[in-house]
Amino acid sequence: xxxxxxxxxxxxxxxxxxxxxxxxxxxxxxxxxxxxxxxxxxxxxxxxxxxxxxxxxxxxxxxxxxxxxxxxxxxxxxxxxxxxxxxxxxxxxxxxxxxxxxxxxxxxxxxxxxxxxxxxxxxxxxxxxxxxxxxxxxxxxxxxxxxxxxxxxxxxxxxxxxxxxxxxxxxxxxxxxxxxxxxxxxxxxxxxxxxxxxxxxxxxxxxxxxxxxxxxxxxxxxxxxxxxxxxxxxxxxxxxxxxxxxxxxxxxxxxxxxxxxxxxxxxxxxxxxxxxxxxxxxxxxxxxxxxxxxxxxxxxxxxxxxxxxxxxxxxxxxxxxxxxxxx
Length: 327
Description:
By secondary structure, this protein is of the alpha+beta class. It is 15% helix and 23% strand. It is built from six helices and 13 strands. The chain has helices at residues 86-91, 99-103, 119-123, 245-249, 260-269, 287-304; strands at 4-5, 11-13, 19-22, 41-45, 48-52, 75-82, 128-134, 137-145, 151-159, 163-165, 176-184, 187-195, 325-326. The strands form three sheets. Strands 6, 7, 8, 9, 10, 11, 12 and 13 form an eight-stranded antiparallel sheet that branches. It has a three-stranded antiparallel sheet with strand order 1-2-3, with no helix packed on it. Strands 4-5 form a two-stranded antiparallel ribbon. The longest helix has 18 residues, at 287-304. The radius of gyration is 23 Å and the shape is globular.
């Protein structure tokens, strides 16, 4: 039957949130026409349920993000709970200068083949950045000298309201998006949508041997019925993200944490769920962070005042102009 019936008293609600039956109330005392539960507009895409939580009577169109236009079978989707606020998690994904240290501080350029996706960020670990506001949010271009001459560029995007596109792939084929979805003030969900395309092996060095400290993949704890009981990773604040101090001392891993995603998770969660920004010392390489924070604040204030709608809300095709990657 279409709808949900509560096990407590048998009241039934349809998909619009309307009460359609009060099984425990005598017919002459029925008042179901006055009862409405909260219900959100929802649709499915890429095996994920998307929900519109705004106040419009008609939901805006789905985001026109490139990877979301692909058939379900061509898209890989992974998710993970992160124990910090959504912006704190997101900001780690639009910060390019950390890659050569957090993820690859123990790797030397000569360990990597000329076409290895890590090579440019390892050859020179101190990029310069340009960042601008864009129709979809903000974008940066990070540049540095490349080995063999020329310039190595990494471009990436923040897309309203909580998406990122990171640069760890060749621009021509780097079709993906990440969502940093708030759960509450102290927790968020990370979603990664990636085009299933042939990719170079990122965890093998030039000599054919596996690179250490750059493993991929997710390991989950069993689900529970707690509010935050799903998509929890085995490495978490309660076990110090399974840090290996001996491996760190022996340069097997720069951080002692072997998994790339867990390295990001550890640094953003270890700040505390809401870090105190009064202690920050922002550097020129943080210009993307600064511009994104400012753009979000200005947009939120304009929306709260009823003056402007958030970017891309009514023109989802704007998202199709955004892609990230390296050159």
